[in-house]
Every structure is written in structure tokens, then in C-alpha cells.
Specification:
The structure is a single chain. With 373 residues, the chain is mostly beta strands. The protein has a single domain, classed as Methylamine Dehydrogenase, Chain H (7 Propeller). Strands 1-27-28-29-30 form a 5-stranded mixed beta sheet, with no helix packed on it. It has a 4-stranded antiparallel beta sheet with strand order 2-33-32-31, with no helix packed on it. A 4-stranded antiparallel beta sheet has the order 3-4-5-6, with no helix packed on it.
Length: 373
């Protein structure tokens, strides 16, 4: 009896250790739009309707680089040419790294390193704890695409029209793939396939291990948005005014919707529903909407008109979050589009609202990062 009880206790202790390891590892990485699939989905949480401002942190330039949160640290870049690490609990600066040029690329954190691109053409890898530069790689043109880290490789697009795969530890180039125009789209990953758009109007699928092209899909204008991938399908917007759903394996079109969408704002996806902005950005009086459609057939579930040009979307639990160029941060019920709350910042919000626990973090054109609780 004593031996059996001891075995039971040892098994329980082993499971506790494994759980602790899993929890520690699960919080050690961060990617733009929630993960390598770029669906914009974050763990359930976020502020309640009784909003409170926890803190702000001021930089000397616009912030279009979305925050990355790992543990108690928050990382982001600014147009002032610095990359920052803050304590997300109180907004205190832990360190900053000077590039000397604007940073619009959102960062990825993995393996104790933080990766981001810069307007000077470099992809940087810094020690996430200290901010010390580990390596940098020259792409020969602007970088607004956000890195993706997987299987010991880091992937990044450049305005040179090239998609790169580098060794994540050393920065050594593994392969490159040339498109016919600039790349602002951040790559998404599913299985062995890497997906991204280009200003040549094509969405590409490559074998992430070799850079070999698997297929391409042609639209009528540039693609700056980041594709979202789930359940064997790819969802993305093009500046030709359409949102597309493609078969992820073949690149065959499943459906398309005429939305007056821009080529930059990326879809969010959860539980078989695709959320995206529908807007006409060539006139100030153009309609701006959020739409929710069935991922299988593109049939509309709901739409809501919103004041202002809409920024990036994020999902957490049953709440859809997004900012706009008029400084409003919105929280909608993802089931029916009803507004839960809104928060007014002094200037436009283009970053993804990032949810961590009961807090929400975003950057603004006024140069501040905000933490709401």
C-alpha cells in the first residue's frame, strides 16, 4: 500500500513538473497577430467594461510597431529609431536599443532573442533580457514586414521584393525568394508551407525548409496584408478591393468578397468566422465597416459601421478589438458586433491591440504605448 501510494505521488509530481515546463515554454514566444498562423487570436482575457488606464510610456516618434508580450516584458519599436523593452506591469523602461532609423516592423520573440526589422534595411536579433545585439542581417531595403520564427529559422520580407530565411541563432542566410515588387506582408506558417503577399499582386506559398515555390495566386493589386491561415484555408485582403479565401494546399480560390478593402488590414479568424475591415480609403466620406463572415462560404453574419479608418484586428475570447485613425479603440461582441466599450486616445491607433491576462496594450501615432486594465 505504501509503495503504491509513493508511486501515485511520484506520478503526480511528474505531471506537475511537466505542466510547469509547458506553462513556462508557452509564454516564452510571441508573434505579430498572435502566432505564426497570423489569425489575430490571443488567449481569453482583456479589460472589463469598467476601463482604467494603467500606465502610458512616451517615445519621441509615432508607434506603428505592435507590442509583443512575453512574461512580464513588453517589446516594441518606435519611429524615433529606438527599440524598447518595458516592464508591462508598470511601464518602466528596462532597456532600449538604438537603430537610428524608424521601426515599423512588429517584433517576434523566441529562444531568448527578440527579432525585428528596421527602415535601414536590417533585421536585428537582440538578447531579450539585456537588449544586447546578437546579430543583424542586411536586406538592402526597408523592412516593415514582421519576422516569423520557426524550426530554428527566422523568415522576413523586405521592400527589395525578397523573402528571406535565416538561421535564427546566427543570422546566416539559408535561402531567399524573389518576387516582382516590394513585400510589406508578414509571412504566415502552416505545416510545411510559408504564405505571404507581395506588391506584385500575388499571394505565394513556399516550402519553408527550402524556399521552393509551391503555388501562387494572382490578384489585381498589391497585397500588404498578412494572410491568416486555419483549417486548410488562407484568408487575406488585396488592394483590388477584395477579401479572398484560398485552399491552402493548392492555392485554388474558394470564395471572394467585394469589400472596398485596403491591401493592408489583415483578417482575424476564430471558430469558423472571418473578421475584416471593409472600407474605402480614397475619400474622407467613404464607408468604414467591420464584417464577420462564415469561413466556409463567405456568407455574412453581421456588419457594423465604424467612424474612422480601421487598424489591425485582434480577438480574445468573444471580444473583437481594433483601433482607428481617429484615436478610438473599440471592443465589439464577436458574435453580433454589439459594442462592449470604447476608449479614446489622443491620436490614431494602427497597432494590433495585444491582450495579456486582464490587460490590453497598444501603441499610438502620438508616440505613446498605453496599458488598459
Amino acid at each position: 500500500m505504501i509503495q503504491k501510494r509513493a508511486q501515485f505521488l511520484l506520478r503526480g509530481l511528474a505531471w506537475l513538473i511537466l505542466a510547469a515546463v509547458w506553462l513556462g515554454c508557452s509564454g516564452s514566444t510571441a508573434h505579430f497577430r498572435g502566432g505564426p498562423d497570423r489569425t489575430g487570436r490571443y488567449p481569453a482575457g482583456g479589460p472589463s467594461a469598467e476601463l482604467a488606464l494603467a500606465w502610458t510610456f512616451k517615445t519621441a516618434g509615432e508607434i506603428q510597431s505592435s507590442p509583443a508580450v512575453v512574461g512580464t516584458k513588453l517589446y516594441f519599436g518606435s519611429e524615433d529609431g529606438y527599440f524598447y523593452a518595458l516592464d508591462r506591469r508598470d511601464g518602466q523602461q528596462l532597456w532600449r536599443f538604438r537603430t537610428g532609423d524608424p521601426i515599423y516592423s512588429s517584433s517576434a520573440v523566441a529562444g531568448g532573442l527578440v527579432y525585428f526589422g528596421c527602415d535601414n534595411g536590417y533585421l536585428y536579433a537582440l538578447d531579450a533580457a539585456s537588449g544586447r545585439q546578437v546579430w543583424r542581417f542586411m536586406t538592402d531595403d526597408y523592412v516593415v514586414s514582421s519576422p516569423l520564427v520557426h524550426d530554428g529559422l527566422v523568415f522576413l520580407g523586405s521592400y527589395s521584393g525578397l523573402m528571406y530565411a535565416l538561421d535564427a541563432a546566427s543570422g546566416e542566410e539559408r535561402w531567399r525568394f524573389q518576387t516582382e515588387d516590394w513585400i510589406g506582408s508578414s509571412p504566415a506558417l502552416s505545416g510545411k508551407s510559408l504564405y505571404f503577399g507581395s506588391a506584385d499582386g500575388r499571394l505565394y506559398a513556399l516550402d519553408y525548409r527550402t524556399g521552393q515555390e509551391l503555388w501562387r495566386f494572382q490578384t489585381a493589386d498589391y497585397i500588404g496584408s498578412s494572410p491568416a491561415v486555419a483549417d486548410g484555408r488562407i484568408f487575406f485582403g488585396s488592394a483590388d478591393g477584395h477579401v479572398y479565401a484560398l485552399d491552402a494546399a493548392s492555392g485554388q480560390e474558394v470564395w471572394q468578397l467585394d469589400t472596398l478593402a485596403t491591401g493592408w488590414v489583415s483578417p482575424a479568424l476564430a471558430d469558423g468566422i472571418v473578421y475584416f475591415s471593409s472600407q474605402q480609403d480614397d475619400t474622407e466620406s467613404g464607408r468604414h465597416c467591420i464584417q464577420a463572415v462564415d469561413a466556409v462560404n463567405g456568407q455574412e453574419n453581421w456588419r457594423v459601421e465604424v467612424d474612422g479608418v480601421i487598424g489591425e484586428l485582434a480577438l480574445s475570447g468573444n471580444t473583437l478589438y481594433f483601433g482607428s485613425d481617429n484615436g478610438l479603440l473599440h471592443a465589439l461582441d464577436s458574435h453580433d458586433g454589439r459594442e462592449r466599450w470604447r476608449y479614446s486616445a489622443p491620436d490614431g491607433i494602427w497597432t494590433v491591440p495585444v491582450i495579456a491576462g486582464r490587460n490590453l496594450y497598444f501603441g499610438s501615432i502620438d508616440g505613446c504605448v498605453y496599458a488598459l486594465k
